[in-house]
Amino acid sequence: MEKLLIEGGHRLGGTVQISGAKNSAVALIPATILADSPVTIDQLPDISDVRTLCKLLQEIGGKITFHDNTIVVDPREMVDMPLPNGSVKKLRASYYMMGAMLGRFHQAVIGLPGGCNLGPRPIDQHIKGFEALGARVTNERGAIYLRAERLHGARIYLDVVSVGATINILLAAVRAEGQTVIENAAKEPEIIDVVTLLTSMGAKIKGAGTDVIRVDGVQELHGCRHMIIPDRIEAGTFMIIGAAEGRELLIDNVIPQHLESLTAKLREMGADVQTGEDQMLVSKCTGQLKSVDVKTLVYPGFPTDLQQPLTSLLTQAAGTSIITDTIYSARFKHIDELRRMGAEVKVEGRSAILGGSSHLEGARVRATDLRAGASLVIAGLIARGVTEITGVEHIDRGYDHLMEKLSGIGAHVWREQAEEAETRENLREQE
Ligand SMILES: CC(=O)N[C@H]1[C@@H](OP(=O)(O)OP(=O)(O)OC[C@H]2O[C@@H](n3ccc(=O)[nH]c3=O)[C@H](O)[C@@H]2O)O[C@H](CO)[C@@H](O)[C@@H]1O
Ligand SMILES: C=C(OP(=O)(O)O)C(=O)O
Fold first, then answer.
1. Which CATH architecture has domain 2-19+230-430?
2. Which of 237, 269, 332, 415 is deepest in the core (most CB within 10 A)?
């Protein structure tokens, strides 16, 4: 296993190119199962979650050709092979294999998903949706068995606003008979991206981006070409890096409207954020950053996926900041690691309370999940000395060529083979 090393304290500038969105890509790839001819997807991020999903499609008979950041998926020879174990456990988004395979084959066996450990992440709303569409769903030894004689439209009210459940129900509903209405649907940009692909494939969907989505089922979906939207969480991570150490850091290929909640907070802190059509220019402020309070909410509120990265920046603000995660009960595993680096921060319930003005020093730390990794990278860029981060495989799930992108803007970062003891400890923690 590798570890990542960062020598902090260097000012960062130049241009960073944002990749396609992870949380779109991981839904779009399974969505291709529903087509009757090849689907081309452009601007695919080079991340391990994408590679794992491509492998899952190949396991069920999909033919995939890769060309730089484009894939062509030929779904014609796919079969309803059970996927109870193995790769499905490596990521969260394998749950989209349920909706897509149910939609095409009217049956599927899919192991419970993996993904970041952020406290309980039930999938009861996905299952409630599948059942409303006519599926029988059982959980047998950690795998979900789904079977339907026929799928029919239904009115489904989500008890919690869920990105995954909204997309999964869409995948199962687009080829069902009749109309499906999803109420209290999630409104994240990635949902609109998935609906754009499904519509290009011939689906009839209205209301994406609002909390009521209507789907009129069709019998067949066909191939098409689709370009993934830019990754707002990767872009947000680089905006925070710009606010921490940036001297005119230009973030290219971004949709600024997707990041309004972060832009507002960074400006409130005193960072210089300028927005263009598809670019953002971010610089560290000349004085000290100001403290702010932040609460994560569903879109268009402040995204939970940027809570951990922002926490590292808040260690540098003058005064007390409180950051509260209303989406997940345990998304604070990065806090102990930040403390090792000298951050004055404690967790109370769902909030992290930061004393501010912390002098961060390089230390040996461990990424326990994807955005904890991003948070430690940012802390490492700020800290004096060298920070060593293990658990790099979490970061590789969601950041495309992070090392190269950081080096490209002037960061001193490199990878090394982790020592045997570090690898052992990392594997133990993963069990
Ligand atoms: C692959 C992917 O796109 N992952 C994103 C997706 O995760 P994911 O789709 O798992 O997140 P959801 O939007 O479903 O979860 C939101 C909240 O609802 C709860 N819930 C969800 C489903 C359900 O059936 N029952 C239930 O109680 C969850 O525990 C959580 O507290 O959206 C999250 C919230 O923006 C992001 O942090 C993740 O990066
Ligand atoms: C929580 C995340 O990912 P996942 O849902 O794939 O675990 C994330 O992208 O921050």
1. Alpha-beta prism (3.65)
2. 237
Q: Long-range contacts made by residues 257-266, C-beta under 8 angstroms, separation at least 24?
A: 258/189, 258/229, 258/230, 258/232, 259/232, 259/235, 260/300, 261/300, 261/301, 261/302, 261/303, 262/236, 262/302, 262/303, 262/306, 262/310, 263/239, 265/292, 265/294, 265/302, 265/310, 266/239, 266/240
Among 147, 146, 170, residue whose Cα is nearest residue 158: 170
Residue 163 CA, ligand 1 centroid: distance in Å = 6
* Distance of alpha carbon 137 from alpha carbon 300, whole angstroms: 32
Ligand 2, residue 92: give the atom nearest the CA: 6
pTM exceeds 0.95, yes or no: yes
The tokens of 298 are what? 């569903």
| Residue ranges per structural domain of the chain | 2-19+230-430, 22-227
pLDDT in tens, 102-119: 999 999 999 999 988 999
CA distance 43 to 140: 37
